[in-house]
Write a structure and sequence with these properties.
The chain is of the alpha+beta class and about 180 residues long. The chain has one domain. It is built from 6 helices and 5 strands; from the N terminus they run βαααβααβαββ. It has a 5-stranded antiparallel β-sheet. Strand 4 and strand 5 form a beta hairpin. The chain starts with a strand and ends with a strand.
């Protein structure tokens, strides 16, 4: 997860900058980036991403209603393979959803949300909690490169856009 400044009328350029880690958090908040020191970034600068050009980025995204965005973010707490307790069956389901809502509150009540999940192609309010990660197909934003013995196979992304910031949240399955 990372946030960047909104500098362009077409926010896809701002999302692209966040995916490439070329902009700081506009509020100066700490960014946790486990891939920052990976040598794979010399080969694939946006590792683990290989995002399309900004002019094509929105072709792989679909709008979401705010509560569907909360649900999408909540299921990112699941593991991609052999999830022992999907969000839908956890006793702390309400707390997981509340945490997701808190994260998205940063972007305010007028934020717009987008996902790469194809379930949102014809419905801006898919039930991500019921589907879970393994039941959610998407347009991939990941590099196809097999680097460092890690095979990236699935992803679910959520983008929040307001007048000042873009937030990028991503869950990546690998083995």
């Amino acid at each position: 997860m990372a946030t960047g400044p909104r500098r362009h009328e077409d926010w896809a350029y701002d999302v692209h900058a966040v995916l490439h880690r070329s902009v700081p958090d506009p509020r100066g908040w700490l960014r946790l980036d486990g891939d920052r020191t990976r040598t794979d970034r010399h080969t694939v600068p946006a590792y683990p991403f290989d995002p399309p050009d900004p002019s094509e980025l929105t072709d792989r995204l679909y709008p979401l209603e705010p509560e569907a965005a909360v649900a999408a973010l909540a299921v990112m707490a699941e593991e991609w393979q052999a999830e022992p307790a999907p969000v839908r069956s956890r006793p702390d389901r309400a707390a997981v959803l509340a945490d997701a809502r808190t994260l998205l509150d940063r972007y305010g009540p007028t934020a717009r949300h987008w996902t790469n999940a194809t379930a949102a192609a014809h419905d801006p309010a898919p039930d991500f909690v019921t589907a879970g990660l393994q039941g959610t197909a998407s347009h991939s934003f990941l590099t196809p490169a097999y680097l460092g013995g890690l095979d990236l196979f699935d992803d679910l992304g959520l983008i929040a856009v307001n007048d000042d910031e873009v937030g990028v949240f991503w869950s990546i399955g690998a083995y």
